[in-house]
Amino acid sequence: MHQLLLDCEKMRYSHTGLFEFCKHLGNALIRNKATNEEITFYLPSQLSGFFGKKEQYLVNRPFHKLWIPPQKKIDIWHTTFQTSGYMPLGRNMKQVLTIHDLNLLHEKKSPKKEERYLKKIQRNIDKADHIVTISRFTMEDVKRHLDLKDKPTSVVMNGNSLEAYPEFDNPVYRPAKPFLFAIGSINEKKNFHVLPSLLVNNDYELIIAGPVFDENYKQKILTDARAHGVQDRVKILGSINDTDKYWYFVNCLGFLFPSLAEGFGLPVAEAMSLGKPVFISDKTSLPEIGGTYAYYFHNFEPTTMQKVFIDGLHHYQVNNMANAIKAHSDTLTFDKTAQGYLQVYRSLY
Predict the structure, then answer these.
(1) Closest Cα to residue 278, out of 251, 253, 307, 261?
(2) Would 121 be classed as within a structural domain?
(3) CA 305 to chain centroid
């Protein structure tokens, strides 16, 4: 019997991309593993049992950053975040490391902060037996800035993780007009402050959802909305649950994601799974997700963005693009993601 461990320690932060990644990868691994493979989930104490009573669990403890007791039964320890402090060494245990992005390098941080960040990731690369990235862009970024030491590598893309709630019709806020939707952490990297300009010369609302990690940046979004005279039609909801998220995706006129740095861009895949037109930046990994089925902001000058949006919405409607967009999204599933990781694990047995 092969024993696999999936590090889901980052699930302590709900409503984040890492929470969704671990949740959906874990469930897909359960569906796709072989009969001679068992999975242990490494989780915060409050989430022990999250993947069902039949699964095995190792509870994360504060002292584990200093020392994790030997896990003699574990064959593969999969560290799911690049700067994790939880990578125990074992004589026969192999290590898989997932690197989601090097976004900090694209956020114009100080050189010292970048150096510390890269050192943390390099430390984990040095411990790993196989390195995985979630996009080709991230793999090329890693090769430019870090030393892979000729270790085996793979690109395993994420899948669409949107859960359907077709009977739900009671959102936390019900727009009174046709609306545009954006979701993600409220911080500068997501670049949401450029979006209110898209409400000029129309009567749409803009709904932005996601945890507010930077209150000052939230105020910047609202300040820009006032500058364009559309403040009454911009709603920042904060974190929302899965049912609300599904409702906004289903009912929006279009999905907006002008992010400056993404390792993958999960919300884009979610919107496309419903055949929605997506208007996204052309930065980092996003063109890999949107392909030729997205409409791209090549810069964030208001009149240019407005033209991309108007032309894109017209193209979407005239060409009945919904089915083609759905078909494109169908190539991105977490079952395929799990199968990719299982192939990596099996190469190390």
Answers:
(1) 253
(2) yes
(3) 24
- CA 287 distance to own-chain centroid: 15
Alpha helices by DSSP H, listed for the chain, are 17-32, 111-127, 136-145, 215-227, 242-251, 266-273, 286-290, 302-318, 322-329, 334-346
* pLDDT confidence of residue 178: 98
Cα distance between residue 218 and residue 187, in whole Å: 7
What global pTM score does this model have?
Answer: 0.88
DSSP labels, 290-317: HGGGSEEESS--HHHHHHHHHHHHHHHH
Return the structure tokens found at 334. 């977490």
pLDDT of 265-306, one tens digit each? 999 999 999 999 999 999 999 999 999 999 999 999 999 999
Q: How many domains does the chain have?
A: 2
Q: Which of 345, 158, 194 is nearest to 267 (CA)?
A: 158
DSSP state of 75: S
From residue 280, how far is each of 13, 61, 85, 128, 268 by CA, in Å? 25, 39, 33, 34, 8
Q: Which amino acid is at 195?
A: L
pLDDT score of 91: 76
What CATH number should be reported for the domain holding residue 282? 3.40.50.2000
The rounded distance, in Å, linking the Cα atoms of 37 and 17 is 27
Q: How far apart are CA 252 and CA 249, in angstroms?
A: 6
- Largest Cα separation within the chain, whole Å, is 65
